Amino acid sequence: MIKFFYTRLLSLRNAFIGWWYVIRTQKNAWIHAVATVVVCLVGFWLKLSMWDWAVIVLVIAMVWTAEFLNTALEIVVDLASPDLHPLARVGKDVGAAAVLIAAASSTIIGILIMGKPFIERLQHLWSILRIK
Ligand SMILES: Nc1ncnc2c1ncn2[C@@H]1O[C@H](COP(=O)(O)OP(=O)(O)OP(=O)(O)O)[C@@H](O)[C@H]1O
């Protein structure tokens, strides 16, 4: 039983090492991190509903998952094919496409959920400033 929990703890530790590797080495991950913080701050500011948050968390997780899998793919491709190879290129390009699709669709979903309330909030603020 103790061994079971110990090995689960080790797995968790490995997952965090992988997570830190992505944060440390992938420039795209820095963009995702900034986008994640900005989206969460704006979401709190707009007081999004529970369901809106559920969708936002889902699409944020989708982008991060795509980035993590793409990084894993890049590393395995580099390991298997250190020299240039057309198949290695296709493998990496397809991985990059997955991140692109996740990021683009998340942006659209973010705009659909937060676009209208964000503009309404700005208009509200603007009307308060004009009265003063
Ligand atoms: N071994 C290879 N053989 C052929 N083409 C490759 C190889 N490695 C990389 N490429 C090409 O170079 C591109 C960039 O690959 P690289 O490994 O530098 O990814 P990256 O710059 O880290 O990607 P990202 O910007 O998504 O993090 C790939 O999408 C692919 O088109």
TrEMBL record:
Signal peptide: none annotated. Pfam families: DAGK_prokar. GO terms for molecular function: ATP binding; ATP-dependent diacylglycerol kinase activity; metal ion binding. It is a multi-pass membrane protein. Keywords: ATP-binding, Cell membrane, Kinase, Lipid biosynthesis, Lipid metabolism, Magnesium, Membrane, Metal-binding, Nucleotide-binding, Phospholipid biosynthesis, Phospholipid metabolism, Transferase, Transmembrane, Transmembrane helix. The active site is at E67. Mn(2+), Zn(2+), Cd(2+) and Co(2+) support activity to lesser extents. Its cofactor is Mg(2+). GO terms for biological process: phospholipid biosynthetic process. The chain crosses the membrane at residues 29-46, 53-76, 96-115. Its EC number is 2.7.1.107. It is found in: Cell membrane. One of its GO terms (cellular component) is plasma membrane. Substrate binds at E67. A divalent metal cation binds at E74. ATP binds at E74, K92, D93. It comes from the Bacteria. Belongs to the bacterial diacylglycerol kinase family. PANTHER family: DIACYLGLYCEROL KINASE. This is Putative diacylglycerol kinase.
